[in-house]
Amino acid sequence: MEITHKRLNRVDLLTIKGRLDAMNAPQLKQKFDELFDQNRYRIVLDLAGLEYVASPGLRVLIEARKRARDRKLTDLEGGDVRIANLPPRIKEVFDLTGFTSLFEIYPDTVEAVGSF
Amino acid sequence: MESLTVLATLKSLAQISAFVNEASQRAGLDDHTAWQVELAVDEAATNIIQHGYDPDHPGIIELTWRIEDDRLVITLRDYGRRFNPDDVPPPDVSSPLEERQPGGLGLYLMNQLMDQVRFDFDDTDGNLLTMVKYIQPHVSVDVREFCLSGRLDAVGAALALAPVHQAIADGAAYVLIDFGNVTFLSSTALRSLLLARKDLLERNGELRLCNLRPQVREVFELTGFTQVFAIHSSRTEALAAFGQEHV
């Protein structure tokens, strides 16, 4: 798995490529922890290059979104972890596990970043 | 029968996937089915690695695969803690984020992705997990598949079933609807399904339904519609039935 990070003005963009399985999930969790430690709670995940996801990876995603949403950035708005470019096979796992309705999913990164 | 023994560590997952992908290839599974098998075995192995053994003192996992008629049979044996699948409540995949419990997904996925999952425990022979995937029969007709989810109440049914009716209007004759993620079924939804069935029968087509949850199945049973609709326990079984017999 390869994670690249791009810091935008208000949003952090993480591009995740390869396999997000039990072996690699802690690496992604660490990346989220780093961002949260820097008080960065608006995060977009570009999953276009994600080839494979297993439940430990899903767990990291759900826990990250919970933490981000619990963080109130203003009175009205919390943080969030939003998703762009969900490949069909990853979407299938999301559908099977009910994750499709747990995340805001956008067709591309421009829309996802702009949604914040 | 082919076999592989690995140390129960996360580093072994790649080797396990390679072993299983080889099995799928030899069984002639298509890409999509091979991926389902890979994910199910990956989840099973991860559970053994993370919960079966003490991560500081990992034991071994013995894997085998064999082809029996139209089935690919994969086994995983370990000598760690005994695991009772009944102790793991299935995740509520329709619950909202705040209430969502992150556990239990691995076992849930194994059950969703494989046609059979079975656990046997023995004090000397260890824990044996047997998973079966049917090798897809050739589907002789062009089947349109729909996967519905959520609550099919009056509003939800109209939205969810619109693409089905559209496909039928566009000429589809063989339609499979997967109800695996449907949590509620209203009379509006039933009427809509009856209509779809009638339209398909008129052109000698077939409507088949699969993966009904118990509470949804009950609606069919209460209304006597289990006799009317062709209901299958799995997608594989439903696909195999298309074009074979009349509904």
Secondary-structure blueprint:
The complex is a heterodimer of chains A (116) and B (247).
Chain A: E1 2-7, E2 12-20, H1 25-37, E3 42-46, E4 50-53, H2 55-70, E5 80-84, H3 88-97, E6 105-106, H4 109-114
Parallel strand pairs in A: 2-3, 2-4, 3-5, 5-6
Antiparallel strand pairs in A: 1-2
Helix pairs in contact in A: 1-2
Chain B: E1 2-7, H1 13-27, H2 31-52, E2 60-68, E3 71-78, H3 105-113, E4 116-122, E5 126-134, E6 143-152, H4 154-169, E7 174-185, H5 187-202, E8 206-210, H6 214-222, E9 230-232, H7 235-241
Parallel strand pairs in B: 6-7, 7-8, 8-9
Antiparallel strand pairs in B: 1-2, 2-3, 3-5, 4-5
Structure description:
The complex is a heterodimer of chains A (about 120) and B (about 250). Chain A is α/β, with parallel strands linked by helices and about 120 residues long. Chain A has one domain (about 1-115): Transcription Regulator spoIIAA (2-Layer Sandwich), CATH 3.30.750.24. Chain A contains four helices and six strands, in the order ββαββαβαβα. Chain A has helices at about 25-35, 55-70, 90-95, 110-115, and strands at about 1-5, 10-20, 40-45, 50-55, 80-85, 105. In chain A, strands 1, 2, 3, 4, 5 and 6 form a six-stranded mixed sheet that branches. In chain A, a hairpin with a 4-residue loop joins strand 1 and strand 2. In chain A, helix 1 packs parallel to helix 2 (about 55-70). The longest helix of chain A has 16 residues, at about 55-70. Chain A is globular, with a radius of gyration of 13 Å. Chain B has about 250 residues and is an alpha/beta fold. Chain B folds into two domains: about 1-135, 2-Layer Sandwich (Heat Shock Protein 90), CATH 3.30.565.10; about 145-240, 2-Layer Sandwich (Transcription Regulator spoIIAA). Helix content of chain B is about 40%, strand content about 30%. Chain B contains seven helices and nine strands; from the N terminus they run βααββαβββαβαβαβα. Chain B has helices at about 15-25, 30-50, 105-115, 155-170, 185-200, 215-220, 235-240; strands at about 1-5, 60-70, 70-80, 115-120, 125-135, 145-150, 175-185, 205-210, 230. In chain B, the strands form two sheets. In chain B, strands 1-2-3-5-4 form a five-stranded antiparallel sheet, covered by helices on one side. In chain B, strands 6-7-8-9 form a four-stranded parallel sheet. In chain B, strand 7 (about 175-185), helix 5 and strand 8 form a beta-alpha-beta unit. In chain B, about 35% of the residues are buried. The model of chain B has no long low-confidence stretch (mean pLDDT about 90).
